[in-house]
Amino acid sequence: MIFRDFLRALAQLPERRFRRVLMLGIGLTLLLLAAISVLFLIGVQTLVPDELDLPLIGTVEGITALASWGAVGGMFVLSIFLMVPVASVFTGFFLEQVASAVEAKHYPYLPAAPGLGTYESIKDAVNFLCVLMVVNGAALVIGLVFPPSLPFIFWLVNGWLLGREYFTMAAGRRIGLSAARALRRKHRGQIFAAGVLMAIPLSVPFVSLVIPVLGAATFTHLYHRVTGTRPRD
Q1: How far is Cα 135 from Cα 133, in angstroms, rounded to an integer?
Q2: Most buried one in 97, 181, 192, 209, CB count within 10 A?
Q3: In the predicted model, what is the mean pLDDT of residues 120-136?
Q4: CB distance 8 to 221 below 8 Å
Q5: What is the pTM of this model?
Q6: Domain coordinates of the chain in residue numbers?
Q7: Confidence of residue 57 (pLDDT cuts 50, 70, 90)
Q8: Could you tell me which InterPro entries the record lists for this protein (predicted)?
Q9: DSSP conformation letters of 195-228
Q10: Is 96 in contact with 115 (CB distance < 8 Å)?
Q11: Does residue 150 carry a pLDDT above 80?
């Protein structure tokens, strides 16, 4: 059943409304990461001296240039780590558009969803970003200590996080966040399994950027399925 939800979401990906959210999410993500990289590079060039006097070695020049190149490489690696959580948060801002597109095609008989307020959406998205980065940071440290476990830790941790967040948002737009959290606890097994299904492709560069949109659509289907709402097709 979960795979059916995912395949329905995947089949709808080429649609204009899905493409628009995908492009917005990726564009805003790249813009934010580029801005952070520029600020970090400016900070390095401002704070790091161009030459140092070292005992027994003498004056070493070009420190700023070396540190700048190191900063560029470090930010590139860090951007790979940050791209998915940031893209997930930005896509969360446009969840309503993805869920509406899913319902317009598969559940056209439903009344319009009340939706989440702007303040609630932003607050939830920011909280999600903080939790996502902290938990992934901790998982990365554990994975570096036990390298063979890194992929499994990544999948399990992000499966739990993505399932928790996207189901709550998909359900919350119709029944409110409190009721959505209660429903999430009732179906935690299915939600976790669907989250892991979303998390596994996160390991694949570039493919991972599509996952936030597919996740929003998949969990919209999952919400309607567990509440007994049947799709038209």
Answers
A1: 6
A2: 209
A3: 72
A4: yes
A5: 0.76
A6: 2-17+83-226
A7: low
A8: CysZ/EI24 (IPR059112)
A9: HHHHHGGGGSTTGGGGHHHHHHHHHHHHHHHHTT
A10: yes
A11: no
